[in-house]
Amino acid sequence: xxxxxxxxxxxxxxxxxxxxxxxxxxxxxxxxxxxxxxxxxxxxxxxxxxxxxxxxxxxxxxxxxxxxxxxxxxxxxxxxxxxxxxxxxxxxxxxxxxxxxxxxxxxxxxxxxxxxxxxxxxxxxxxxxxxxxxxxxxx
Length: 139
Description:
The chain is an all-alpha fold. The protein contains 5 helices and no strands.
């Protein structure tokens, strides 16, 4: 039997489990495992994790600002403009994130939310993505 036919069942199993694996690696799922805690604890966990993710995001923006300040090759006016446009971009990103998480995420989660608040999970996940993006760009 050809190797493609022998490995087909394994490939199908991997493909079928990919969405589940992706869910398990989301920052919100890592912080609050829906399979291990009850609905009330899950709500409290997501709320705490969301608040923590907001603080962490604010710290990442502050770190990016300090990175800009550390540039010795820029004039003060250039640094000020860069920080201003970064803050403007952050405000626009927050507007997008809020619309995505408040309006879109609940529909996407549908009945599969399993007692979790998809809005809070979305905030946690999007904040983590933004923090990683800022950390990568402002090393």
